[in-house]
């Protein structure tokens, strides 16, 4: 009898999660329940499943509203009815047109109008809802006419009085107003909650016709949905057989290209995989992915196929991935197997510059009515919750700031703040708005509006109204089209090298970089700054601890650096065994045979499959079920118990003693929840090698590309420093040499105008465009005549030295600019047909020191270019200790001055610990550790140079200084502000130190890791 229920998917309106709504209905004896969220179908699929489990008839629909005014409620008679309503909503959302005041001619939808919005003449499928509060009006003559087409309408929006208050808060947030200013039209009625069904029917006892009409509607609605049916586009060609033949042809062609004609192992594996792919109807999925990659290659774009898709030799032969699964012993079953009924997904990366082009191709290549981005529910987050809730209670900005920083504690006893915290905590994990999934695209066999309405977020691609989990649940598997800046850096570096040196590099030939001795040598000492995935201080430290000098060790390092693996203690154990191969025994012979590459330590998700296969004797496909079950990938406790039982049954059949099998299972169980796919690590390692190769042999061009792509762990200053260390001569921006991005000419690197703090992009583009069209600028006056720019922008360019090509000093140029622009308003300037000779002015001689230039640079770029930060220090102290000779001072106290690069805050059992990365006077990097006790008296005080005192420690080849004392060193005063003490250190205060924070539990100590280093006898 409940035909109008809202869940919390009625954003900023409903308060009840779907499962709680159904639980309440069960308690109230409800036999049929309709979910009609406002202008969305987001919750209907979860609702259907939960209703079936509760033996409640699920009716699904939509409540159509325009500007919060209820127009009508639509109930789907069947799946076609959902499609009709979704198409109406899609038109409204995508074309920004208003919803029709009265419902269109639906064929599979029943419409219920509120009494205040009912049309004079009702069609067969239309009814009028009468709320319990309106029953008394049915005595009136003008209301009696409704009775033949009237139904029970008891809306449900909240569960308790407290939730009603939460509803009011949500409405105030949505309307951006104070609670006290809400009107009755803004909020629901206080009666909109579930009551026992027999109690509801009793209210209409005098009107049996209304009850009968309601029952008729319930009987008319039959929403059935087959969740296990795949919904992705079925065929790339026109049939399953056509797809099979094409995929086989492409795979065999690629097989010859990758392996030659005589690789029996590869040939056997390709045949095996093709059979599984065809049997599970995934040929079309592979071919669609291949099509997208082929387009990418035709455009000259780089891509990286990663994730479990790289476990497939077919995807390797198709060019989707570049990881040989035979070389790395990757199990296809990790990606696809007979027991995996949901489709797999490929994760493919493109450069951040080219991803939109790929997306545009996908939406045009496949019918736009069948393609959409996956949605995502953006939840209320802690800090934003208290700001939002606090605003509707009328709290001041200061109070809101205090609340947002007071997680988990009461900051005030006054009643308003108490209510803000109380209701704010209720809102955690509530959906706040729908947004676009960062990378997931759905390509559907049927029009997507058969299943969902589409919305149009600001990015310009339509999205479905449910998230990736619902998508997978109802038969869709997304294509992950990702972007990253690391690929952009590699791609641009290759292009810069060809332009600057005339050298063409096929960077996709991974053997070029993977087997290169010099690259491996630099890898082993952590000289990897700027390189994808291996440039962070933590990763560079790990590479040095491992003396990582080969591909397979890098693959392992890429996995064990992951937070979960490191936090479990597996990273620490792997480092120990790697450096001490004679100080441990393999736990069991199978661990030696199958995990010898990683010293018997489980490092990858595939290791679970290996142990299940070779120790327990399970099928490889069953091993993947074990991995997924233990890691919580959509498996119930009942299924997990079944998998566990099967594991021990198989172990018993193999003759293993129970105690031994229990320890193996314990290791699998403790491992699987945090493990990392080996193919994913391998893909990352390949890209790391590509960037390292470019840095090793073309360091200047590579670092320029890193600067221009704006990604990476560090700020531009550090990449500029790296370019300098690679032999570049760094020049400040120049009006005749610089572009928007940083440019390189030979070894001369001209910083891009984009790095200037206060120069707008339109002006930058106009400078470059004008120069390309009409040639170099010949003087300041010539520049002003040709470029529309105000005095402030001109002064910025002068102070950074962009007019040095004119041969005049900054002081002369400033005077000239002010004379030329003193009474001139910026206008659209044009190149003069006959340019008058430049007026020559007599300027006084104004001397400028190198210090003034350095401080100009710090003010405009954020760092000095023309000199080193060490040149600006007051002290002349020089230390014999430098990064390169730290290992000579093991366990000794050292003192040195260094420039701060980055700080990382990490929790430990003693409190928050800091790790610093620094540059010494020679430009080399080193790292420090700062324990909580030392930080009490010697804390970080922003960017700049510090005098450090500490003890040198070496942890498996990686030296660090454990700092006991440190002090920030003063810079020379800014001579530009010699008459103002307040401004003499303003520029140096802007110097930065990149800060990152890790929020996790402390790493375990060696005795807590609990991985046996001894052998258990199998008998």
From TrEMBL:
<keyword id="KW-0548">Nucleotidyltransferase</keyword>
<keyword id="KW-0808">Transferase</keyword>
<keyword id="KW-0235">DNA replication</keyword>
<feature type="domain" description="Polymerase/histidinol phosphatase N-terminal">
    <location>
        <begin position="1"/>
        <end position="68"/>
    </location>
</feature>
<dbReference type="Pfam" id="PF02811">
    <property type="entry name" value="PHP"/>
</dbReference>
<dbReference type="Pfam" id="PF07733">
    <property type="entry name" value="DNA_pol3_alpha"/>
</dbReference>
<dbReference type="InterPro" id="IPR004805">
    <property type="entry name" value="DnaE2/DnaE/PolC"/>
</dbReference>
<dbReference type="InterPro" id="IPR029460">
    <property type="entry name" value="DNAPol_HHH"/>
</dbReference>
<dbReference type="GO" id="GO:0003887">
    <property type="term" value="F:DNA-directed DNA polymerase activity"/>
</dbReference>
<protein>
    <recommendedName>
        <fullName>DNA-directed DNA polymerase</fullName>
        <ecNumber>2.7.7.7</ecNumber>
    </recommendedName>
</protein>
<dbReference type="InterPro" id="IPR016195">
    <property type="entry name" value="Pol/histidinol_Pase-like"/>
</dbReference>
<dbReference type="InterPro" id="IPR003141">
    <property type="entry name" value="Pol/His_phosphatase_N"/>
</dbReference>
<keyword id="KW-0239">DNA-directed DNA polymerase</keyword>
<dbReference type="InterPro" id="IPR040982">
    <property type="entry name" value="DNA_pol3_finger"/>
</dbReference>
<dbReference type="Pfam" id="PF14579">
    <property type="entry name" value="HHH_6"/>
</dbReference>
<dbReference type="InterPro" id="IPR004013">
    <property type="entry name" value="PHP_dom"/>
</dbReference>
<dbReference type="InterPro" id="IPR011708">
    <property type="entry name" value="DNA_pol3_alpha_NTPase_dom"/>
</dbReference>
<dbReference type="Pfam" id="PF17657">
    <property type="entry name" value="DNA_pol3_finger"/>
</dbReference>
